[in-house]
C-alpha cells in the first residue's frame, strides 16, 4: 500500500496532563517528500477558470436540457469562450451596481449554467460567493443572508418568492435581486417595495454589456467563498475558503488523476447530483427485469468477474465476456458512456460498492471530505478491491491522523487503530465566519477535528465507522454508537433506511425503518398480503418480519444484547430533505428525526414496557 500512502510521523501517547493519544500521521505518496509545489499560474479560482477559457475557448463547458411539457429535450451547450464573455458581463453589472471587492454575493438555486456564471463572476471581480443550499429551509436562507451580510443575490426563478416572502426578514438588506431567467411583474414590484432592484438574467447581461469593466483578479489568500454547511442541528456554519484552497484542490485532483492509465478527455462530461440512490434504482431495476434463468446466469457471471477482480485484474479486463453478456445492459441503463463514478456523500455499504464496481463497467472511487476540507481529504483508487469499505488514503495536499476519544473507547494506539479523524493541509478552511469560539474549538494545533470516527490500517487506509456526536448511553450505562449500528442493520434486504434511537432513560433500542418498496411487495406477494405500499407498511406482520431480519443481522454480526433493536416504527416514506430529516448530503438530522417521530417512539416504548409485564 506504500504506493498510495506514506507515514510521516509516528503516533504518541498523551501526556500526564490529560492530552489524548494520537496516531501516526499519513500523507499521500504523491507528497512523500512534502506537498508538491503550487503551480504559479494556478493560485486562484479565477486563474483556474480563465486559463481554461484561454486554452480551450471552443470546447464545450456547460450543458443543460430544456423541458417542454415535463419532457427533457436534448442537451444544449455553451463553450468556454461563451461562458467567459457572460462572466465578464455579470461581473461588470455587479460592479456598476456598487459591488466592491469583498462584497458578499448570494446564489440560491439548483445547479445550472447561470449558477456557475454568477460564481465565476465573483471569482473574477474579487467578490465573495455565498451559496444558499437549494434544499435549505427559508429560515436558514434568512439567517445566512443576514449572517453573511449578503448585498446581492442570484435566484432561481421558482425560488424568487421565498426571498420576497415575509418569512425572509433579512431581504430588506439586499440591494439587488437577479433571477436566473425571467421574473413576473408582481415579483419585481414586491422587490421594489422591499427597497431592492430586481433584474432578469437578460437585463443583467445587457447592463454588463453597456457598462463593461475589466476583471479585478483576487489574490491567493483572499476569501473565495463562505460555504454554509447545512448541519445536522442548530444554525448553519459559515466555512471560509480561500482562493488558494480551491486552486490547490484542483491541482491535487490533477496530480491524482494523472496516475491512472485511463485518462479523462475533453469528450467526457461531468454530472453532479445527489443522492446515489438514483443510480442504484436504475441498476436494481435492470437486474429485476431479467427472466429467472437470465438472472441465474447474471449471478454466475457476477461471481466470475468478481473473482478475477479480487485476484488483481482491472475491471475492464476481468471478464469482457461477462460485460458483453450481462453488464452491458447495466451500462446502457446508466447512459452508455459512464466511465467513472465518484461517491463522496454518506458512506456506502460494502455490498453496494462491490456491486457497482462489478456491474457498472466503469471505474468506481469512494472518498471522504467535508466543506471544511474543501472537498476530498481522502480518496480511494479504482481497480483495487482491497479498498472496498474504505475511503482510501490521504488526498494529495492533506495529512490525516486519528485522536483518542476515551469516552467512546476509541484509541489510535490500540489494535485496531480507532479515533477521531483529524486533518491538516493546504485545502483546510480558514475558520468559521463570525464564530471565533467554534473555530478555536475545531482547529487545534493546526489540526481540524472532524467529529467523525475512523479506523486506520497500519498502511494508512481510512475507514469511517462512526460519528463522535452519534453516541448515547442507555439506562444500564452501556454506550451505543448509533451510526455504526445503522450501517450494520441497513444490510437487511427489507430495509431502505433506518434510524436507531435510544436514550439514558431506557434500556432498549428502537428504530424507525423505511422499508425497501420492491422487496416489501415481494414479501407481501409471497405471504398473501395485498394493498398499496402504504397499506403494507401498516401491517403488524411486516413489523415482525423486519424485526426478524434485524435479529438475523444482529446474530450474524455478533452484536451485543443491548445493541439489538427491540421495536420498530415503519414509515413508507424514506427520510428526506423536504421534511428536514436529513441534510442535502443525506446525513441524518437526529434532533429533527426525534421531533418528527416523538409520538410514535413514545407509543412504541409504552407497548414494549407493557409487553414485558
UniProtKB/TrEMBL annotation:
InterPro entries: AMP-binding_CS (IPR020845), AMP-dep_synth/lig_dom (IPR000873), ANL_N_sf (IPR042099). Residues 50-433 form the AMP-dependent synthetase/ligase domain. SUPFAM superfamilies: Acetyl-CoA synthetase-like. One of its GO terms (cellular component) is endoplasmic reticulum. Gene3D superfamilies: N-terminal domain of ligase-like. Its EC number is 6.2.1.12. It catalyses: (E)-4-coumarate + ATP + CoA = (E)-4-coumaroyl-CoA + AMP + diphosphate. GO terms for molecular function: 4-coumarate-CoA ligase activity; long-chain fatty acid-CoA ligase activity; trans-cinnamate-CoA ligase activity. GO terms for biological process: cutin biosynthetic process; phenylpropanoid metabolic process; wax biosynthetic process. Residues 1-22 are annotated as: Disordered. Pfam families: AMP-binding. PROSITE patterns: AMP_BINDING. PANTHER family: LONG CHAIN ACYL-COA SYNTHETASE 1, LONG-CHAIN-FATTY-ACID--COA LIGASE. This is 4-coumarate--CoA ligase. The lineage of its organism: Eukaryota, Viridiplantae, Streptophyta, Embryophyta, Tracheophyta.
Amino acid at each position: 500500500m506504500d504506493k498510495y500512502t506514506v507515514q510521516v510521523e509516528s503516533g504518541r501517547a498523551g501526556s500526564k496532563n490529560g492530552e489524548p493519544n494520537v496516531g501516526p500521521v499519513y500523507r499521500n505518496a504523491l507528497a512523500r517528500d512534502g506537498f508538491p509545489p503550487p503551480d504559479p499560474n494556478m493560485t486562484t479560482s479565477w486563474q483556474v477558470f480563465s486559463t481554461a477559457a484561454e486554452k480551450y475557448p471552443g470546447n464545450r463547458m456547460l450543458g443543460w436540457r430544456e423541458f417542454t411539457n415535463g419532457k427533457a429535450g436534448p442537451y444544449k451547450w455553451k463553450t468556454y469562450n461563451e461562458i467567459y464573455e457572460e462572466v465578464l458581463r455579470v461581473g461588470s453589472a455587479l460592479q456598476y451596481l456598487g459591488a466592491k471587492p469583498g462584497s458578499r454575493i448570494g446564489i440560491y438555486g439548483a445547479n445550472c449554467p447561470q449558477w456557475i456564471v454568477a460564481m465565476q463572476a465573483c471569482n473574477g471581480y474579487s467578490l465573495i460567493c455565498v451559496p444558499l443550499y437549494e434544499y435549505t429551509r427559508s429560515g436558514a436562507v434568512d439567517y445566512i443572508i443576514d449572517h453573511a451580510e449578503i448585498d446581492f443575490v442570484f435566484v432561481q426563478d421558482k425560488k424568487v418568492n421565498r426571498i420576497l416572502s415575509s418569512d425572509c426578514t433579512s431581504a430588506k438588506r439586499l440591494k439587488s435581486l437577479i433571477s436566473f431567467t425571467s421574473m413576473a411583474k408582481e415579483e419585481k414590484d414586491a422587490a421594489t417595495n422591499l427597497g431592492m432592484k430586481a433584474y432578469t438574467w437578460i437585463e443583467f447581461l445587457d447592463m454588463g454589456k453597456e457598462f463593461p469593466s475589466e476583471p479585478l483578479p483576487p489574490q491567493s489568500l483572499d476569501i473565495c467563498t463562505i460555504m454554509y454547511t447545512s448541519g445536522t442541528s442548530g444554525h448553519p456554519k459559515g466555512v471560509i475558503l480561500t482562493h488558494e484552497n480551491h486552486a490547490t484542490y484542483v491541482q491535487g485532483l490533477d496530480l491524482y488523476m494523472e496516475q491512472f492509465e485511463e485518462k479523462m478527455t475533453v469528450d467526457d462530461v461531468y454530472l453532479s447530483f445527489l443522492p446515489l440512490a438514483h443510480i442504484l434504482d436504475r441498476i436494481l431495476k435492470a437486474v429485476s427485469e431479467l427472466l429467472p434463468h437470465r438472472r441465474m446466469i447474471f449471478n454466475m457471471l457476477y461471481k466470475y468477474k468478481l473473482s478475477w477482480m479480487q485476484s488483481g485484474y482491472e475491471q475492464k479486463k476481468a471478464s469482457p465476456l461477462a460485460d458483453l453478456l450481462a453488464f452491458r445492459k447495466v451500462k446502457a441503463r446508466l447512459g452508455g458512456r459512464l466511465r467513472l463514478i465518484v461517491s463522496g456523500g454518506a458512506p456506502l455499504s460494502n455490498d453496494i460498492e462491490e456491486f457497482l464496481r462489478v456491474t457498472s463497467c466503469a471505474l468506481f472511487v469512494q472518498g471522504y471530505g467535508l466543506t471544511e476540507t474543501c472537498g476530498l481529504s481522502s480518496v480511494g483508487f479504482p481497480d483495487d478491491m482491497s479498498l472496498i469499505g474504505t475511503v482510501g488514503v490521504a488526498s494529495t495536499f492533506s495529512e490525516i491522523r486519528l485522536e483518542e476519544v476515551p469516552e467512546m473507547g476509541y484509541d489510535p494506539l490500540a489494535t485496531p487503530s480507532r479515533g477521531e479523524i483529524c486533518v491538516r493541509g493546504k485545502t483546510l478552511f480558514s475558520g468559521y465566519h463570525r464564530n471565533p469560539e467554534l473555530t478555536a474549538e475545531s482547529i487545534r494545533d493546526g489540526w481540524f477535528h472532524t467529529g467523525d470516527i475512523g479506523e486506520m490500517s497500519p498502511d494508512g487506509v481510512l475507514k469511517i465507522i462512526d460519528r463522535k456526536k452519534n453516541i448515547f448511553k442507555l439506562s444500564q450505562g452501556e454506550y451505543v454508537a448509533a451510526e455504526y449500528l445503522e450501517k450494520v442493520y441497513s444490510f437487511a434486504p427489507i430495509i431502505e433506511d433506518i434510524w436507531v434511537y435510544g436514550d439514558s432513560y431506557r434500556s432498549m433500542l428502537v428504530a424507525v425503518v423505511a422499508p425497501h418498496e420492491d422487496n416489501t411487495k415481494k414479501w407481501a406477494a409471497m405471504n398473501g398480503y395485498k394493498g398499496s405500499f402504504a397499506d403494507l407498511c401498516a401491517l403488524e406482520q411486516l413489523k415482525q418480519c423486519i424485526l426478524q431480519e434485524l435479529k438475523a443481522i444482529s446474530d450474524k454480526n455478533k452484536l451485543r444484547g443491548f445493541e439489538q433493536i427491540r421495536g420498530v416504527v415503519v414509515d413508507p416514506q424514506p427520510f428526506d430533505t423536504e421534511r428536514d430529516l436529513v441534510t442535502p448530503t443525506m446525513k441524518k438530522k437526529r434532533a429533527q428525526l426525534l421531533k418528527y417521530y416523538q409520538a410514535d417512539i413514545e407509543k412504541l416504548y409504552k407497548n414494549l414496557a407493557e409487553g414485558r409485564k
